[in-house]
TrEMBL record:
Keywords annotated in UniProt: Signal
Similarity remark: Belongs to the leucine-binding protein family.
Pfam families: Peripla_BP_6
Highest rank taxon of the organism: Bacteria
Domain Leucine-binding protein span(s) in chain numbering: 54-391
Keyword hit for Cell cycle: no
Name of the protein this chain belongs to: Substrate-binding domain-containing protein
Signal peptide per UniProt: 1-19
Entry keyword Mitochondrion: no
Native species: Sporosarcina siberiensis
Length: 419
């Protein structure tokens, strides 16, 4: 009897110890699983934290007279990075970060913000700006810090002309490209043309380039009028043009305070003066009802290009911005982003400005406006523009630029002016 009792106790002890061992083993397994999982999670975080970063500083007029231009550029740039990186915001194993700064359309502010981006944020690239004045003020900083600056959407010829330095590349078209397109629409032997433009670098360069292109086609530029870009009353300027009695008035303009209403009020077209200009952004088109039937040119309207990149841009822009279509400077912002990603892909992530110069000179890349190519001599992107006629379209409350024909990069190639 005693033996049975001892045997029973021994058996119970074995079961308890076995259970304890099983329980401990389960705990060890559970603890091991949690620890390994945590290690894996930490490992991912460490990889992300240690991933190298490409930083891009974007200068734009996010307030002020050119606010709409700055916002279009920003939206296009963000969509361009997404398109070019397939949504990863990475290139060549490096993360892309963007810092935006508002220049307020003031050159002195643009310099301050650019210096902050270069000194404090340590950006690898600069992009901008909405104003030619802002951009010209910042160009020397790109050279001083040896950083590539993509100029978008500023158009002054001097940016890739007299003020050019080797770190400057421009996806925006320049005034001479606009001029060739504008002259092609109206200039021919015997035609008399007056010009009207704002009194700063954008206007000066635009008129100078148009005058040369128009005279090369046989037209005569009989009067040039420059107006204060901040003015709201252009009557005296326009009256001088009326008195000159040209066949056409070619207008170079940018900004919210456009002259179209006063041109209408003065009944210039009824007086035999045809108006021609570059078709502007949608906000400005909305006050151009008096110009229906006008033939001119445009940098971009969303229905004009026929390519996959533009199709993607239009579709995605509508999805993200309540059905709104991309505007005049949206594709430029997208093109600037695509150019940076393309250059970094070719350099395998190397952002050194001096090394990128050789890679980007002559580089071609696909944009919403088709193929662009950075001309090696002055880093100006050769690109298409569009000969158009403004027409009224049912359901749209502004005159719509309708395509006459695409002006190919070979046709709009501007002179090299940085020698």
């Amino acid at each position: 009897m005693m033996k049975k009792w001892v045997l029973f106790l021994l058996l119970a002890l074995v079961l308890v110890v076995g259970a304890a061992c099983t329980s401990d083993s389960g705990k060890e397994l559970e603890e091991t699983d949690v620890t390994d999982s945590e290690k894996i999670e930490v490992s991912k975080e460490e990889v992300e934290a240690e991933m190298e970063v490409i930083k891009i500083g974007v200068l734009a007029s996010l307030t002020g007279a050119l606010e709409s231009y700055g916002k279009q550029t920003r939206q296009g740039f963000e969509l361009g990075l997404e398109y070019a990186t397939n949504g990863t915001m990475e290139v060549a194993g490096k993360k892309i970060e963007v810092v935006y700064e508002d220049t307020e359309t003031k050159p002195e502010v643009a310099v301050q913000k650019a210096t902050k981006l270069l000194e404090d944020d340590k950006v690898d690239f600069l992009v901008g700006s909405s104003s030619s004045g802002d951009t010209l003020a910042v160009l020397p900083l790109a050279e001083e810090y040896e950083k590539i600056m993509i100029v978008e959407p500023a158009v002054a010829d001097s940016i890739t002309g007299s003020e050019f330095n080797q770190f400057i590349f421009r996806t925006a078209r320049n005034s001479s490209q606009d001029a060739v397109a504008g002259a092609a629409a109206i200039a021919k032997p015997g035609v008399k043309i007056a010009t009207f433009a704002p009194d700063y670098s954008f206007g000066w360069d635009g008129v100078a380039a148009f005058k040369k292109a128009a005279e090369d086609l046989g037209a005569e530029v009989v009067l040039t009028e420059f107006a204060d870009p901040a003015a709201t009353d252009f009557t005296s300027n326009l009256q001088k043009i009326i008195e000159e009695k040209p066949d056409y008035m070619f207008v170079v303009w940018a900004g919210a305070n456009s002259p179209w209403n006063q041109i209408s009020d003065l009944k210039m077209q009824e007086k035999g003066i045809k108006i021609s200009t570059g078709a502007p952004d949608i906000a400005a088109l909305s006050v151009m009802e008096p110009l229906v039937g006008m033939e001119g040119f445009t940098v971009y309207y969303h229905t004009l290009p026929d390519n996959e990149v533009n199709d993607w841009l239009v579709e995605e822009h509508k999805k993200r911005f309540d059905g709104a279509v991309p505007d005049l400077f949206t594709p430029g912002g997208m093109s600037a982003a695509i150019a940076i990603v393309e250059a970094l892909t070719k350099s395998e992530g190397e952002a050194d400005g001096n090394k990128l110069i050789g890679i980007m000179e002559g580089m071609s890349f696909e944009t919403p406006k088709g193929t662009m190519t950075f001309r090696a001599e002055d880093h100006q992107a050769l690109q298409s523009l569009y000969s158009i006629k403004l027409e009224k379209v049912d359901g749209i409350d502004y005159p719509v630029p309708m395509l006459i024909r695409e002006l190919l990069p070979s046709e709009t190639e501007p002179p090299i002016m940085n020698k």
